[in-house]
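INFO batch 0412 | record 1 of 1 | parsing
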Amino acid sequence: MNKLFIWCFAVFMSCAGTPSQTSQDMQKNGEIIISESQGGADQPGFKMIKNEQELQNFADKGNSSIVEVGKEPAKTSLVFPKNKKVILYNLGMFRSGSHTITQIKSISVKDNILYVEVPAVESGGMEIQVISNPWFIFAVPSEYQFNSVALKYSK
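INFO prediction complete | emitting tokens
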């Protein structure tokens, strides 16, 4: 019985000792670099962007620039943020509504998962059925350590 008590206590202490990066300085807001309503993958997921060239390739892929008739489209020149990790996040496939991310409320890391809190946008009623694959690129402080990214929607 005594060994069982000690074993339960050891298991409890090992769970309680897991480091969590959710202190006040880790609750900073992320920075959205690009947000698009089309062109993402069919399944939700993330990819780390390693350098400025890779970031520029995604900027050129986006369709948010305005083009005047008879003129060449302006190239968007992005600078890779210093001391930041840059992440591409695909939201997956949606059949209707607007799912473009326009704001990041907060970010935090817990159990090696980067939680990105974004505002929930309610869309309802009779909508035209249009398939969209939204995606966005954002930056977080380089000291964040994570293996996965999860979106949290809040009002």
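INFO post-check: The helical segments are 2-16, 52-61.
INFO record closed
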